[in-house]
Amino acid sequence: MPTMEMTNPAALPADWRDFLALTKPRVMSLVVFTGLCGMLAAPTLPPLVLGFTAILCIALGAGACGALNQWYEADIDGKMRRTAKRPLPDGRMERQSALHFGVGVGAFSVLLMGLATNWLAAIMLAASILFYVLIYTVWLKSRTPQNIVIGGAAGAFPPLIGWVAATGNFAPLPLLLFAIIFLWTPPHFWALSLFVRSDYAAAGIPMLPVVAGFENTRKQIFIYSLPMAIAAVAPWPLGLTGPIYGGCAAILSFVFMVLAARVLASRATEPTDMAAEKHLFGYSVFYLFALFTVLVADRWLGW
């Protein structure tokens, strides 16, 4: 478990870019996008100002998660090359500032969501923040190689929150969107963890490649890709979307499975040789963006 002392007691004064970095903008962009798509796929839409406010709340909630994650893992981040230049391990910010920022932004996002849309959406936003911080970051990440599997639920909330913010209730389609992201998360992060395995090992994080090896991780990537592909296509035969989504989802998922099969067949152990793993990781990001884009296109083109 990481210690709670400040990484650098003589931290330099932080500026706005450091606070922005705390929010993990690249991760936030995917969260905001899937939340927006969940809202746009709903049968009714809130007024423009309230809809914008709901998406802003999802963004703020995601940013709070990033800040609190970096506050708790500052010592771990300092041990990994890809995170060592974040504001806390690099000494550009005091740890307490990140804690206050994360708690304040998170609380504000939940309160604003409840006042602007409905309290069910606010409760779900609060649940997603608490799940990410307490269940994934504090409990799972440093203790079990199943951290990504269970913790994937935190990243799967946004389309469900967007839908509920628009409608005030649940429905089968947003629940399937939750399932798609939940099942997509392990192949996505395990592909990354294969070629940054040394970073996780140095930080003592029990990611699957560290504790179970390359071969088993590649098998798990392929195994999880199968139900993900089924869940991605399922809205069409269930009558929840039209043929635009169904056809595109089938093609996108087929390509995903081909790339996952290439990873399964790979025997590379050095990051420089892991072309298949890097291709799958890169495509997995495109896959989720493309899948949710065609979902909205299908909805707005008449289905």
SSE layout:
Blueprint lengths: L15 H7 L2 H16 L7 H25 L1 H4 L17 H22 L2 H22 L6 H21 L4 H24 L1 H7 L4 H26 L9 H23 L9 H26 L3
Helix pairs in contact: 1-3, 2-3, 2-7, 2-12, 3-5, 3-6, 3-7, 5-6, 6-7, 7-8, 8-10, 8-12, 10-11, 11-12
Overview of the structural elements:
The chain crosses the membrane at residues 27-45, 51-72, 93-113, 119-139, 160-184, 221-238, 244-265, 280-297. It comes from Sphingomonas limnosediminicola. Its EC number is 2.5.1.141. It catalyses: heme b + (2E,6E)-farnesyl diphosphate + H2O = Fe(II)-heme o + diphosphate. The protein is mostly helical. It folds into two domains: 9-167, Tetracycline Repressor, domain 2 (Orthogonal Bundle), CATH 1.10.357.140; 171-303. The protein is 74% helix and 0% strand. The chain is built from twelve helices and no strands. The chain has helices at 16-22, 25-40, 48-72, 74-77, 95-116, 119-140, 147-167, 172-195, 197-203, 208-233, 243-265, 275-300. Helix 7 runs antiparallel to helix 8 (172-195). The longest helix has 26 residues, at 208-233. The radius of gyration is 19 Å and the shape is flat. Mean pLDDT is 92; it is low at 1-10.
Strand segment count: 0
What is the CATH topology classification name of the largest domain?
Tetracycline Repressor, domain 2
Strand content: under 5%
Largest sheet: none
CATH top level class name of the largest domain: Mainly Alpha
Tally of helical runs: 12
Order of helices and strands: HHHHHHHHHHHH
| CA-atom Rg in angstroms | 19 Å
**In CATH, what is the homologous superfamily of the largest domain?**
UbiA prenyltransferase
Structural class: mainly alpha
Corresponding CATH architecture of the largest domain: Orthogonal Bundle
Count of all domains: 2
Helicity level, as a percent range? over 70%
Q: Roughly what is the average pLDDT, rounded to an integer?
A: 92
Enzyme class: transferase
InterPro entries: Protohaem_IX_farnesylTrfase, UbiA_prenyltransferase, UbiA_prenylTrfase_CS, UbiA_sf
EC number: 2.5.1.141
Membrane topology: Multi-pass membrane protein
